[in-house]
Design goal:
With 225 residues, the protein is of the alpha/beta class. The protein has two domains: 148 residues, HAD superfamily/HAD-like (Rossmann fold), CATH 3.40.50; 66 residues. 56% of the residues lie in helices and 10% in strands. It contains 13 helices and five strands. A five-stranded parallel β-sheet has the order 3-2-1-4-5, with helices on both faces. Helix 11 links the parallel strand 4 and strand 5. Helix 2 runs antiparallel to helix 6, helix 3 crosses helix 5 and helix 6 crosses helix 8. The protein starts with 7 loop residues before the first strand and ends with a helix.
Length: 225
């Protein structure tokens, strides 16, 4: 196999650069909303892509969730829901962030392409100086487009300044990776670092190896996040 040259790696944020949703924050959301979990989840996700596309902002999103669930949230409740919703998505994946640093040091361009609402992003930007590591940050609500719309991939590729076939896209959802491939990007569906490492090696990409192990990445994260 001839190793494939890549010039850029494009990451999803949620459950790729971040870990799984924080369970305590999720429990807090249920308590604040005062809804059964099944009802909460139904309405939380029903219009989430509309929130990510800036059809709703953070406050109007939660007001609409309440309306659909047949309740009303007070302004104070919405403040707390916004806080805990952001907290739910802010546990960093130290292995993936350490790998991103290794890619940058190896001379590759980096990007993030993520479906993201305004209030969650504002919290992330306040907390994470490491976002400056990335050459291109595409957050859906700032563009009015969401994955898997091909337009948001084309928008990101243009701003990265790299040919689509020289970009690897890593996302935790099959539909988003399929859309990336339709736009000419290389793509891998992410579930965990071990699986990603196997897939990268199996495809023969020329990238820094091995991916960081959990212990060294976690120690480094304490200093560099």
């Amino acid at each position: 196999m001839i190793p494939m040259e890549l010039r850029a790696v494009l990451f999803d944020y949620g459950e790729v650069l971040s870990g799984p949703p924080n369970p305590q924050a999720h429990s807090n959301l249920l308590e604040i909303a005062g809804l059964p979990e099944a009802v909460f989840e139904q309405h939380y996700w029903a219009i989430r892509l509309d929130y990510d596309a800036d059809i709703y902002n953070g406050r109007s999103y939660w007001s609409e969730v309440a309306r659909r669930a047949g309740v009303e949230f007070t302004p104070a409740q919405i403040d707390r829901l916004l806080e805990q919703d952001a907290r739910m998505w802010m546990d960093v994946n130290p292995q993936m962030l350490a790998w991103a640093r290794a890619l940058k040091q190896a001379g590759l361009k980096l990007g993030i392409l993520s479906n993201m609402g305004d209030a969650v992003l504002q919290a992330i930007e306040r907390e994470f100086s490491w976002l400056g590591l990335f050459d291109q940050l595409t957050w859906s609500y700032q563009t009015g487009m969401v994955k898997p719309d091909p337009a948001i991939y084309r928008y990101t590729v243009e701003r990265l300044g790299v040919a689509p076939g020289e970009i690897l896209f890593v996302d935790n959802l099959e539909k988003n990776c399929a859309a990336a491939e339709q736009c000419g990007l290389e793509a891998i569906v992410y579930s965990n670092v071990e699986q990603l490492d196997r897939d990268l090696r199996g495809r023969g990409y020329r990238l820094p190896y091995p991916l960081p192990n959990p212990w060294s990445a976690a120690r480094g994260a304490q200093v560099t996040l």
